[in-house]
Amino acid sequence: MAVLSFPWRKSAALPDSAATPTANDRLSLLAAVVDLLPDPVLIVQRAAMPNAPVRVMASNAAAQELLRIRGDGESLIAVLRHPEVLGTVENTLATGEGRTMTYETGGPQSRAFRVWTKMLENDARQSALVVLRDETDARRLERMRADFLANASHELRTPLASITAYVETLQGHARDDIEARDRFLAIMSVQARRMGRLIDDLMSLSRIELNERVPPSGVCDVALVAREVIDGLLPVCSGKNVRLQLTAPAGSQVVASGERDQIAQVMQNLIDNAVKYAPEGTTVLISVNASASFEPEAEGPDANVLREQGGGRVCLVSPERSHEQRYVMVRIADQGSGIAREHLPRLTERFYRVPGQKSGEIGGTGLGLAIVKHIVNRHRGGLAVESVPGQGTVFAVFLPQGEFG
Ligand code: ADP
User: Which one, 15, 109, 244, 393, has the greatest CB density within 10 A?
Assistant: First the structure.
């Protein structure tokens, strides 16, 4: 079957560099380039007869693939069924004026396209150039950025509004009330610290995201880092009567390749959460193991049991698979409130918090697990969570095993 193409495509060849390129050489080259463009490009034409359909006279490979163009001179309406796009093309052919518009294909896999039309100059046969550009990903990113900004502003505005209200009260009717002043100042201090934590987390997240494609250098002893993080959290734990228990191979180092500070941040965020969402008097078990393989996606024989209890097991970050790759695995298991199955896949979204979850006096920022995800991604590692409401949660982090040089 003849596949419609730019007519000169087959003859496209680089002119001999010693010779002066002819007009035909240039035309061939140009056609070859257009054919390689990622954006669909069409030349459409209307025959001189009244009410003649607009036909596709040439198309590049991207257009043929997108619009499933099968033969020469197919009518435009048969391949591009969107009435507004057809109207725009008709309009350009009728008025000679170029247009630009956007349209969405619709359906569950809807994609957004920008369309440019431009009359081909000096063409007695009324031809126009139509270029489509897939803007789906760009739009999604734009929407994500806007959502992120709106969420971040909202999160900062809440404590700020509280501080502003207390300042006004202290300047007004509570001016001479010493007892109220101390109470309000304490609240303002909590809110100010919350804003500080939010800003710190936002800065961390943006720094980590900037570096996400740069592989980390260095190696670190994960058991040692876990011990240091646990020591740092002891004051919080004793205040809450939660015990932290570490199990690691005795007397040997457990070495992962990666950046020590970022690995410490992963553990800090996960252990901190375990303590935050655990009831008083419970124990958080942290274990560090070498030579683990990555297999959390396996549903496992207990998958149905987890499901019946309203819980589940979800892989939140999965490394590129390689059977030989061994990992250092860190598991953090708490006896806290647990997380219902439907929330598990969303835990690493920025600002996502499980509805109705109580984080105690120190409210979370909703950014801790997003930070964990990006660090694990950068380390080409893995992250999985298993949880049952009312019983507890286990997070497992997998970091590529390393060696001290
Ligand atoms: P936050 O700062 O709110 O803790 P995270 O990104 O660290 O934000 O966690 C997102 C949400 O996941 C939390 O708000 C909480 O609802 C839930 N979550 C995280 N860790 C646990 C846990 N160990 N037990 C129960 N829920 C948890």
Answer: 393
When the candidates are 1.10.150.50, 1.10.540.10, 3.20.110.10, 1.10.287.130, the CATH number that belongs to 136-214 is: 1.10.287.130
Note the pTM of the prediction, 2 decimals. Answer: 0.76
pLDDT of residue 4: 43
Instruction: From the CA of 348, give the closest atom in ligand 1.
Output: 6
CB of 277 sitting under 6 A from ligand 1: yes
What is the phi/psi pair of residue 168, to 5°?
A: -65, -40
Distance of CA 353 from the midpoint of ligand 1 (Å): 6
Ligand 1 atom closest to Cα of residue 332 = 23
Residue nearest to atom 8 of ligand 1 (CA): 366
pLDDT at 3 over 50: no
Q: Outline where DSSP puts E strands in 169-292.
A: 219-221, 243-247, 255-257, 283-292
pLDDT digits (tens, 9 = 90+) for 333-347: 999 999 999 999 999
* Domains in the chain: boundaries: 2-134, 136-214, 215-405
Q: Could you report the per-residue pLDDT of 114-144, keeping only the tens digit for each?
A: 999 999 876 667 899 999 999 999 999 999 8
Q: Which one has a higher pLDDT value, 299 or 228?
A: 228
CATH topology of domain 215-405: Heat Shock Protein 90 (3.30.565)
- Please choose from 353, 358, 361, 397 the residue to mutate so as to test ligand 1's pocket, defined by most ligand atoms within 8 A of CB: 353
Which atom from ligand 1 is nearest to the alpha carbon of 395?
Answer: 23
Q: Which CATH code fits 2-134?
A: 3.30.450.20
Distance 344 CA to ligand 1 centre (A): 10
pLDDT of 85 reads 94
Residue in 275, 265, 266, 254 with CA at minimum distance from that of residue 362? 275
Other beta carbons within 10 Å of 162: 18
Nearest protein Cα to ligand 1, atom 4: 364
Which stretches within 282-367 are classed as H helix? 303-308
